[in-house]
Structures are given as C-alpha cells and as structure tokens.
Amino acid sequence: MGAVTDRIEPSGGVMSDSRVDLSFLLTALRKLWWVVVLAAVLGAAGTFGYASLQTPLYTATSSLHFSIAQSDSATDLNQGSNYTQSQMLSYAQLVEGSLVLQPVIDELNLEATPRGLSSSISVSIPQDTSTMEITVTSADPERAADLASAISEQLIEVLDEAGSKTADGSPSVTVTIYDDAVPPRSQSSPDRSRDTLLGGVAGGVIGVALALLVALLDTRVRNEEILVEAGGDPVLGVVSKAPLLQSRALAVAQEPLSPTAEDFHRIRSALTYANVSSRVRVLLVTAGMPGEGKSTVSVNLAMTLAGLRHSVLLIDADLRRPRVHVHVGIDGSVGLTNVMLEQVTLEVATHSVSGTTLDVLPSGEIPPNPAEMLTSHRMEELIAAVSGKYDYVIIDTPPTLSVADANLLAPLTDGVLLVVDATKTRRAALAQSMKTLEMGGARILGTVLNRARPVRGRDRYYAEK
C-alpha cells in the first residue's frame, strides 16, 4: 500500500481557463437570463421615467422657395437658379440674425433676445435645391407655429428691402412660402416610446455584458467538463443535489432506487477500474475546503460498497470536526482515538449498521494532537490490521487546505478520492488541493463532483413505475 506511482497528472494544466466560445456564451446567458431581463426592464423604466419628467417640446416648420424674379431665356433661368443656390447659406444666416429675429420678438412681444431665440431655431437647406425649411422648437405648439411663420415672413421682408434689385427696382430674388407652419398635434421630444425602447435595448446589452462578465469571473467548478479542464481528471462520478443528502442521511439506504443511489453506484463501478494493476482496498476520502460534502460521500459510498455484500469499515479520521456519526446516527464519543490510546478494543468501538455488512468506527474523543495521532505507528498498524479483515476500508479525513491530516495519512492508503463541490469549489483551490496531496505522496485515484445540477428529466424517469 501507499505506493506513489502512476500519479494522475492534471491534463491541460490545472489553471487553464476554459475556452470562451459560443457554447460558453449561450450557457452564461441561459444561467443568468434574469440579469439580462432585469437590466432591460430597469433601462426601459429608467428612460421612460426620465422622459416623463422632461418638458414636452413641439416643432413647427415653415418651408420657403427662392427664385429669380425675371428670366428671359433658359440660360438666364439656369444661371439664376445657380445664383440662388449659391446664396442659400447667406439667407440661412439671416434667419438666425438680429435683423430677422428682433422684429419677430417685437411683433410677438417675446421676452427673449435674438441670441436666445436662435437656439430654438434650426434651418435646413436640401442639397442642390433653392428651398429652405425653418423649424422652431417650443414648449407651446401654437407659439412654435407662430414663430416659424413670423420668421419666414420677416425674412421675406428683409430680402425685399435689403436684397439685390433689378433694373426696375424690384427684388431680384422672389421668396415664396409654399408650406406654412401649423401647430403640431404631438410633441417631438421627448419621444417616450422610442426612448423606452432604446433604454430597454441598452439595458439588455448591458445585462448581456454583465452576465458574460459574471460567467468569466466565476471560477467555480460547475460541471464535469470544467472539472476535467481544471485538472480533476479522471472524474469517478457526479453526485447531484438531493434533499436527502442535504439532511445528512444515508440516502442510498433510505432510497436504494433513487437517482442519488445510482450516482454512488457509478462511483463504485469507477473505483473498480481506477487502477487495473492492483485492487483498491483502503480508500481515503477528502476535500479541499470544509463543507464540500466529503463525509456525505464517504458514508454513502461505504454503504454502496456494502450493498454488494462486501465487508466495509468506515473510519472517521476527521479528529477535528467529525461528522460520520451524525450521518449514521450513532454515538461518536467512543471510537478511533480511544482505540489508538488502547482504552478500548477495535471490536468495542466499532458499530455495525443493522441489516448491512457495513461497520463504522467513529472518531471518538477529539484529541489535542490529531496530526501526531494519525501519523503514529499505532495508526499504521490499525490500517494494516483492518485492511486484512475487511474487503474495503473507507477513511474520512479533514480538508487538505485546512490542515495537513489528509496529506500525512494518504501514503498509508491505496488511493485518495477528492470531493469537489460544484457550488463552491474554485479552480485555484482544486489545483492547490491536488498539488498538496501529490507533494505529500498521495496517489489520487480521481475526483467526485458533489452537489451538481441534476440532469433534466432524470427524476421523472425514476418516478415512473
């Protein structure tokens, strides 16, 4: 026992991140769809609320056409049209100047200055045309139309008075209002429908970005594929979440035909092929951090092995926070430590589970020096003795990253089973656990992914009769 050959090397590097591909993106969005929906709803609601608080604005437009007053031939008409187009920018500047706006202010009795009024006016000139559109924005639709009309009329007056003249003294450029401004029926801004839609789209995009960011930053070993990539190969089994396991019960004994029992049957079968060169008789079960379910896996795996009528001894070697006796429902006050101190015999400290071939050796009293006790010559003799008496010996030990107990005890066993919690174990912790065990001379047989997401439809299949 305890040979340090044929170690399992993490394939691909324990710290290699999974490749971000379409499958990764779709998985992230499927798991965090509510983030996208919430962000979209908040974005839509926020923009709608902001738009509702804004003062409604209305726009009215007056359209003008500019032409040469007289033309004797097609050539004169063409030259006149070119001249008019070349002057359109100059006419546009007049619209926003005081020469046009001040009379409008006086006419409509506005409390404004030409500079202030010009900020609500926009002038557009369609390309290669002699037309102009004067648009006025105001909180009052009637005022918007009145301003647009008054500005257009005043521009015509200015050009009539100050513009170039023909030989007979009439204006050389004729300006006609061909589309007079009318009070708008609906506001131009804010557009609540458009803004709400854009806010929802923007929020959704932000939600997608957040979902992907969370997925990228989440280094938990969520499924078997990630476990293999993170260096947990070979994976000997996957144990799905189940209410019985959460209640610290013997799930495989209470519901032998349940999906949970089937999970442990697969682990039992995988152990058979974990090392074809020699049979695994003494198995150490540990985890990286507390609370990953190592004791749950130890107890149910031991019961599963006993289900084939193998003689199995489950030893609670977690002399710091023992839990095996709680799962099995026995008194744990007398056990391993008492046997080590030769206070009682192994037969007296061992409890037999009724109706099975499983024996349980609880931890006993918690000693002040657990590590020294587990590495003592007495512990080595005990393991050698029980390995010759039982078909299988399962040893539950403390987490590897918390204390060194598992590392010290691992060389005395045939192999180590590392439990990985799909809901909390990080890749870095998994890598460190495996490195720590291997540096201590452990032979890692494989990993078990605990508390994994149940496969869809599996419970329904098992429920059918």
What this model shows, in words?
This protein is of the alpha/beta class. The protein has two domains: 58-179, EIF_2_alpha (Alpha-Beta Plaits, 2-Layer Sandwich), CATH 3.30.70.1130; 230-463, 3-Layer(aba) Sandwich (Rossmann fold), CATH 3.40.50. Helix content is 46%, strand content 16%. The chain has helices spanning 22-31, 33-53, 74-86, 88-95, 98-108, 114-118, 141-162, 192-217, 224-229, 243-246, 251-254, 259-272, 294-306, 324-328, 336-340, 346-349, 370-374, 377-389, 405-409, 427-439, 458-463; strands at residues 58-68, 121-124, 131-138, 173-179, 235-240, 282-287, 312-316, 351-352, 358-361, 392-396, 415-421, 444-452. The strands form two sheets. Strands 5-12-11-6-10-7-9-8 form an eight-stranded mixed beta sheet, with helices on both faces. The longest helix has 26 residues, at 192-217. The protein starts with 21 loop residues before the first helix and ends with a helix. The model is unreliable at 1-18 (pLDDT under 50).
